[in-house]
């Protein structure tokens, strides 16, 4: 189908050019193939289902988690004269019947539905009776318990594909690491979906972590930070609701205009905060992660994390709200050991999954990093980066004390390869250090040539260096398969002596 998509783009939306990957996603949608698109916030994901919706026969259903988000989208579509509507629990019965009859008469091109509405008997009935061209699942990471914003309403959406395998589905999200991506595909029951992943690098964001600040130190630092940013407005993310309120109070006392924001506030209060933020009347919003989805403010100049977040996915999403206009923006994370205990407690209280813990572990690694933080972030999302970014605190204050790590890396990788990449960190270390553990002997790993070649290093050193190999993109951890380690193409280069690799020695403090 060689439709002139650019003409359609300018006709319906008034844009001259597609943004990266939009055209590919739209063309795929037009062929009816399922897909999962992971594109950063602001990349223009809505257009990826809105434009095909206009070109396909029938109505596209859009599942979206927030009613406020749906409303914004409908207003924008109506301005462009595109027949669209929402279906959710806030409609009057009269309006609801109106929407349903429009849908059944084929007058709608886009219908935004709340997940619970789509899964209700009414929604199921409409799926049967109306001509549905496609189902788009926006903010698709909400389906995964391992993502950073699980919503139970999303968890049953797999039924749609089960009952209507012929209706193409597109899932979209701004942040999903590999485990979350796989989980989305499985839970939605997508059939051989095309996976489209955008470029995640946000070079304009300065990345900074400060360690060991106590509460009083943080307050002083935040005040200074806001002053340094010409009192432009930004977001301070806190892990706890109570903290958003107490922090806002403390900042007010220091003469900073700050407001708290969290999910248990009334809709009205939250709207007040949103408005104050959009119009630039406040300097700081002290918020839980509930604040952010759907914020369309392009000129946020800074984001602070008052504590260590639970995982890199959430963290990257949150700092990504700064500098969406492309101009420089700053991010600052306060990290302390007590954060780890707090997060660990939250994890175990939530009936933890091992994966959740692993994700936190990676976040901790990011905080403690002695190498370019952007390398670590992008490595996490599957984009090994070779050069330093020169826009993070580590790059700007490098610690010179690295040493040639090629031989150490080669030892670890050859152990991994000789066991067909079926071992996790612990077994790798056991092999290298020549452990006599029963499981190891049982698998005959003591016959490997790499058995015992790493006795010169301690268990702790090996663990640290293997983590650095992961951070640098030489190894990948397969979360879905017992955390086994896989050697990446970059790793193979180092193994063959074709690429350099430097390690940071394990310092005494650890
Ligand atoms: P996302 O959902 O990926 O965060 P949105 O779909 O909300 O992003 O789009 C962000 C902004 O980009 C919107 O204001 C939208 O109108 C604009 N936009 C999308 N595609 C284009 C394009 N091809 N050209 C210009 N602006 C675009
Ligand atoms: Mg969006
Ligand atoms: Zn850097």
Automatic annotation (TrEMBL):
SMART domains, alphabetized: DEXDc, HELICc, RQC
GO biological process: DNA recombination; DNA repair; DNA replication
PROSITE patterns, A to Z: HELICASE_ATP_BIND_1, HELICASE_CTER
Family: Belongs to the helicase family. RecQ subfamily.
Location of the Helicase C-terminal domain: 221-368
Name this protein carries in UniProt: ATP-dependent DNA helicase RecQ
A Gene Ontology term for the protein's cellular component: cytoplasm
Domain Helicase ATP-binding: 26-194
Tree of life domain: Bacteria
Pfam families: DEAD, Helicase_C, RecQ_Zn_bind, RQC
Enzyme Commission number, as recorded: 5.6.2.4
MF terms (GO), sorted A to Z: 3'-5' DNA helicase activity; ATP binding; DNA binding; four-way junction helicase activity; hydrolase activity; metal ion binding
Top enzyme category: isomerase
């Amino acid at each position: 189908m060689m439709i002139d998509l650019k003409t359609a783009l300018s006709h319906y939306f008034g844009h001259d050019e597609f943004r990266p990957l939009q055209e590919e996603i739209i063309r795929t949608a037009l062929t009816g193939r399922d897909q999962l698109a992971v594109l950063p916030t602001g990349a223009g994901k809505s257009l990826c289902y809105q434009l095909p919706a206009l070109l396909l026969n029938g109505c596209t259903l859009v599942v979206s988690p927030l009613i406020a988000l749906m409303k914004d989208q409908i207003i924008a579509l109506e301005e462009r004269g595109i027949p669209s509507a929402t279906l959710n629990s806030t409609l009057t019965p009269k309006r609801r019947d109106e929407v349903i009859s429009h849908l059944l008469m084929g007058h709608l091109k886009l219908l935004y539905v709340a997940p619970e509405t789509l899964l209700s008997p009414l929604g199921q009935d409409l799926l049967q009776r109306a001509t549905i061209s496609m189902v788009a699942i926006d903010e698709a990471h909400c389906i995964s318990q391992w993502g950073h914003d699980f919503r139970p309403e999303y968890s049953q959406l797999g039924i749609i594909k089960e009952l209507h395998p012929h209706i193409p589905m597109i899932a979209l999200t701004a942040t999903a690491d590999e485990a979350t991506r796989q989980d989305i595909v499985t839970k939605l029951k997508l059939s051989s979906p095309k996976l489209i992943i955008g470029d995640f690098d946000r070079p304009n964001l300065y990345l900074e972590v400060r360690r060991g600040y106590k509460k009083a130190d943080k307050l002083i630092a935040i005040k200074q930070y806001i002053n340094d940013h010409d009192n432009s407005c930004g977001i301070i993310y806190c892990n706890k609701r109570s903290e958003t309120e107490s922090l806002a109070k403390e900042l007010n006392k220091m003469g900073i205009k700050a407001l708290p924001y969290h999910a248990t506030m009334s809709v009205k209060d939250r709207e007040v905060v949103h408005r104050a933020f959009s119009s630039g009347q406040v300097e700081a919003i002290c918020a839980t992660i509930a604040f952010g989805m759907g914020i369309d403010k392009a000129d946020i100049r800074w984001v602070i994390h008052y504590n260590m977040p639970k995982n890199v996915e959430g963290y990257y999403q949150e700092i990504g709200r700064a500098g969406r206009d492309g101009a420089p923006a700053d991010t600052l994370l306060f990290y302390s050991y007590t954060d780890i205990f707090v997060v660990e407690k939250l994890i175990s209280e939530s009936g933890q999954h091992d994966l959740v813990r692993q994700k936190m572990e990676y976040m901790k690694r990011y905080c403690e990093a002695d190498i370019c933080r952007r390398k670590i972030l992008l490595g996490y999302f599957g984009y090994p980066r070779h050069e330093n970014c020169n826009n993070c605190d580590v790059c700007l204050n490098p610690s010179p004390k690295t040493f040639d790590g090629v031989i150490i890396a080669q030892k670890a990788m050859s152990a991994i390869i000789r066991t067909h990449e079926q071992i996790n960190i612990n077994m790798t270390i056991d092999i290298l250090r020549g452990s006599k553990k029963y499981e190891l002997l049982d698998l005959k790993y003591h016959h490997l040539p790499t058995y015992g070649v790493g006795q010169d290093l301690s268990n702790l050193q090996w663990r640290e260096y293997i983590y650095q190999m992961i951070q640098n993109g030489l190894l990948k951890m397969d979360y879905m398969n017992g955390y086994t380690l896989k050697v990446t193409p970059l790793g193979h280069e180092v193994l063959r002596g074709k690429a350099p690799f430097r390690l940071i020695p394990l310092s005494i403090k650890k």
